[in-house]
Structure to design on (957 residues):
């Protein structure tokens, strides 16, 4: 049957199924292939914290959304155009987000009495009018998967596990993408289980062939390659980018990397990744708890290693006391906090920006720490590199904030060459003459004198130390001096970081100020608002402590400042208290990234009547 | 070259290991004796001074690093084993010593202690056990006996104390010993043995807090009583104690019994012969429980020491093996690994 090939500039699709259906894998394979054919893209994995919630339940639904385009992509899309629903629960929880007239590919085999009941459907949505506004494509995916595998020796359970690749194959066909990258991946991944690799290949091809022959689908779509800058690319998630960035920084610094960490969602992947890089002289230490994670890293930093600890909100809370120790001992350390929904255990697998105040202020005593934030998945690479540079140059702990959204989400990354990365200087003290552990260089950093170096034996610790000499000191004036010196050392880093850049309409009345993982969404909403005729400026903070030197100057240029955050206004609070400027907040704390339309609407509302449509 | 360094180090005197800081423990504190024995041991272990590091937590005992002229790190409450672990992993050539107390190690640092033991990190942990919180001025500790009246137990403690030796055994520590501040000769011997052991060495040191728990170990250190109350374990020798070694320990099944060696009913041949290298933990566990039985003497010396791979050596081995297998990590190939594509 001849099919029509329609061209689209961008598409948002969502895969949804049981948490055991392999939706994350399906989504990431589709993303990799889509990146491979040259589209720009952004992804949003969204899964429950249960590993295998009871099958068929609403709370067990796992989703993976991505937007791909022939143009540049800033967000994983507000509303999907295509939904792949593997069961009634997946349909029920996701159909409300779908664009009207959107396409739903449904595994109709899963729409039996039991599953319909689990999803609280009183009647079968495939048989009533409830899906009238959509193009529904019911496909007996389970049956067709079993048919494709009838000549293999797989158990029924193994057969059932292949059905996501039928859906993937069909989706590849629908969007005119090749199956080969996934086939290559399968054979690599299952090199020791060739029968599994072959079964999945069979099913993948069966899915693709089904598209070719079925009468249910008459149109397929093509999204042209994006005009990306020349270079070699790979699709990278934030956690992957962070992991590679750490290795790169240690490599450039020329010292061994030590990671003391404790598994915690959504940061665990970084510890897992680094534990594979032993041949880069990477030492990973899975500690007994969060506190031992950071204190072992502090010990390793004293010993002259480049030390990291990785965590998420509740873990950062546990590390609080040790952060103070790193501040007073003035040892280099990078703490990576992949933020998730809080408070307490909160929403472990969902995103939030609610640890900003914890990172900037959350310690006993006056304990200033530089705080940086990555804004997109690939930016995690550059920001962990930058956090490392600052930690080593200023002999200070640094906190890098990422979040579940950019940590799990991915985007194409134009790979930098190793020799293009800036050098990171490390100078260990070896000179014994006039050595004092708390003497200072021009950046107020103290010397890094590591055990094993003859003649530099000295003692550091959590008690206040005398200026220059580093002996225990309870002297009031010395304490006052040291508190102020530590504060100044960190504040002066403002001289060593880029200024805040204004994008969009510099002469607008309104500037949208964001930080961290909302960059893509804010950029998209500002782009749309401007397209609709509004004048809007945008700035995005990657340095939260100290703030860029020109922050106040930038903000005071504008009549209105809008700060959208996935918290209750933590940056807004900092900005107001630092600069006494009035700001408008936009806060939603749903465990999900903003939708561009939400910020776009807020912009229009703020500029309503005087500057727009 | 290496020999020369060692020769130089041998020439160092105990006083070369004293820092220029005034020692600020209370006059008469048992910590002085421990400090002095540590300073005597340091020149004899064959490690250059710059490779020795003392790490501590919080408490009276934890001021220790400030009084040593080696490298030192005064950490935060309970975390000394974790800090020391990171330090040892960062540079396995260092000789890392931990000075801690019963509150620091058994209470707030309990988790770090048990995991350090099981991971067998090559550290020497000296736990100064005075059975009281000294630096906070006299509250009961996890090793204070039941019924003890302190500032926070005005009607007597209702807590069951830890037996640190049993706990260390249960945590798979590979070197476990006990000594007493008032027996400097013995303490020095134990410290020397602990240093020679590869892996986590745990030494419980009974230490008298002259202000808040004075006399807690008098029975074990007073001339008149110590012979009857202290059992000095010696490898390969029968367990004897008392005046002129007139008593011994006989093992009846799992039950240790004190026997009189003067009546002629029992001879040395009937006694339990101590084997500190015993692969099985069972006998060491029975010995560890003597402390909790008022009818038995308190053992000092090495309860057990066994060889077992240390985490620090295993980590180094893994790194070496991976470098041999995959070649030294190449950043350019790491960046360009995985599913890449080219935009032209």
């Amino acid at each position: 049957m001849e099919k029509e090939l329609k061209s689209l500039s961008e598409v948002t699709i969502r895969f949804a199924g049981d948490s055991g259906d392999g939706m994350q894998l399906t989504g990431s394979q589709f993303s990799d292939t889509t990146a491979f054919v040259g589209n720009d893209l952004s992804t949003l994995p969204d899964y429950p914290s249960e590993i295998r919630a009871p099958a068929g339940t609403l709370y067990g639904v796992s989703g993976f959304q991505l937007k791909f385009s022939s143009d540049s992509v800033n967000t994983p899309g507000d509303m999907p155009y295509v939904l792949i629903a593997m069961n009634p629960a997946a349909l029920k929880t996701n159909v409300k987000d779908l664009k009207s007239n959107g396409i739903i590919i449904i595994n109709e085999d899963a729409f039996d009495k039991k599953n319909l009941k689990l999803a609280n459907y009183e009647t079968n949505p495939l048989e009533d009018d409830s899906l009238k506004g959509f193009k529904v494509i019911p496909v007996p995916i389970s049956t067709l998967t079993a048919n494709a595998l009838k000549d293999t020796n797989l158990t029924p359970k193994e057969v059932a596990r292949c059905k996501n690749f039928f859906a993937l194959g069909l989706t590849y066909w629908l969007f005119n993408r090749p199956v080969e990258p996934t086939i290559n991946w399968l054979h690599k991944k299952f090199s020791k289980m060739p029968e599994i690799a072959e079964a999945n290949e069979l099913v993948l091809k069966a899915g693709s062939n089904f598209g070719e022959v079925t009468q249910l689908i008459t149109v397929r779509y093509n999204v042209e390659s994006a005009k990306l800058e020349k270079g070699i690319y790979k699709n990278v998630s934030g956690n992957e980018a962070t992991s590679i960035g750490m290795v790169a920084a240690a490599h450039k610094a020329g010292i061994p990397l030590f990671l003391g960490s404790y598994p915690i969602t959504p940061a665990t992947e970084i510890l897992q990744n680094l534990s594979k890089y032993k041949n880069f002289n990477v030492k990973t230490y899975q500690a007994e708890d969060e506190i031992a994670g950071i204190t072992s890293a502090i010990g390793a930093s004293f010993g002259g290693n480049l030390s990291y600890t990785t965590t998420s909100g509740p873990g950062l809370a546990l590390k609080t006391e040790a952060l103070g120790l790193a501040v007073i001992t003035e040892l280099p350390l990078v703490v990576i906090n992949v933020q998730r929904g809080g408070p307490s255990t909160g929403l472990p697998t969902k995103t939030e920006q609610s640890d900003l105040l914890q990172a900037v202020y959350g310690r006993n005593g006056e304990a200033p720490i530089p705080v940086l934030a990555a804004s997109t998945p690939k930016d995690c690479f550059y920001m962990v590199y930058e956090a490392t540079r600052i930690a080593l140059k200023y002999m200070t702990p640094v906190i890098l904030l990422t979040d579940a959204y950019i940590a799990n989400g991915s985007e194409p990354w134009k790979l930098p060459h190793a020799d293009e990365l800036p050098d990171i200087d490390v100078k260990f003290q070896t000179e014994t003459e006039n050595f004092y552990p708390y003497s200072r260089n021009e950046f107020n950093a103290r010397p890094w004198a590591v055990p094993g170096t003859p003649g530099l034996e000295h003692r550091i610790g959590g008690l206040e130390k005398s200026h220059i000499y580093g002996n225990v000191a309870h002297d009031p004036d010395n304490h006052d001096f040291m508190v102020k010196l530590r504060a100044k050392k960190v504040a002066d880093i403002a001289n060593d970081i880029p200024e805040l850049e204004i994008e969009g309409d510099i002469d607008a009345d309104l500037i949208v100020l964001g930080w961290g993982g909302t960059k893509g969404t804010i950029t998209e909403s500002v782009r749309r608002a401007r397209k609709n005729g509004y004048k809007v400026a945008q700035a995005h903070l990657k340095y939260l402590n100290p703030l860029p030197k020109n922050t106040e100057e930038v903000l005071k240029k504008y009549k209105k400042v809008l700060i959208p955050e996935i918290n209750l206004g933590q940056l807004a609070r900092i900005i107001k208290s630092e600069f006494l400027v009035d700001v408008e907040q936009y806060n939603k704390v749903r465990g999900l990234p903003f939708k561009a339309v939400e910020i776009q609407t807020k912009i229009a509302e703020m500029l309503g009547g005087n500057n727009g449509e | 070259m290496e020999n020369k360094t060692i020769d130089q180090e041998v020439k160092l005197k105990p006083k070369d290991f004293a820092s220029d800081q005034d020692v600020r423990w209370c006059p008469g504190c048992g910590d002085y004796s421990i400090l002095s024995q540590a300073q005597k041991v340091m020149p004899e272990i064959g490690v250059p001074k710059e490779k020795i590091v003392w790490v501590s937590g919080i408490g009276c005992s934890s001021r220790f690093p400030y009084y040593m002229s080696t490298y030192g790190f005064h950490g935060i409450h309970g975390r000394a084993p974790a800090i020391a672990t990171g330090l040892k992993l960062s540079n396995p050539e260092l000789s890392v010593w931990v000075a801690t107390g019963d509150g620091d190690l058994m209470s707030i640092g309990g988790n770090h202690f048990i995991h350090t033991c099981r991971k067998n990190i090559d550290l020497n942990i000296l736990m100064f056990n005075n059975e009281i919180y000294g630096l906070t001025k006299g509250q009961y500790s996890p090793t204070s006996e039941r019924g003890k009246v302190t500032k926070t137990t005005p009607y007597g403690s209702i807590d069951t104390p830890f037996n640190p030796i049993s706990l260390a055994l249960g945590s798979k520590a590979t070197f476990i010993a006990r000594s007493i501040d008032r027996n400097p000769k013995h303490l020095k011997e134990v410290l020397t043995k602990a240093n020679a052991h590869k892996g986590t060495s745990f030494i419980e040191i009974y230490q008298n807090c002259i202000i808040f728990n004075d006399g807690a170990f008098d029975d074990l250190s007073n001339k008149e009583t110590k012979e009857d109350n202290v059992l000095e374990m010696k490898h390969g020798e029968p367990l004897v104690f008392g005046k002129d070694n007139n008593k011994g320990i006989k093992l009846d099944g799992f039950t240790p019994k004190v026997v009189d060696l003067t009546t002629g009913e029992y001879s040395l041949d009937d006694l339990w012969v101590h084997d500190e290298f015993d692969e099985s933990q069972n006998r060491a566990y029975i010995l560890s429980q003597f402390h909790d039985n008022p009818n038995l003497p308190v053992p000092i010396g090495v309860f057990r020491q066994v060889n077992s791979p240390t985490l620090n050596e295993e980590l180094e081995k893994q790194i070496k093996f991976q470098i041999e297998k995959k070649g030294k990590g190449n950043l350019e190939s790491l960046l360009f690994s995985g599913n890449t594509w080219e935009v032209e």
Q: What stands out?
A: The domain at 503-606 of chain A is CATH 3.40.50.920 (Rossmann fold).
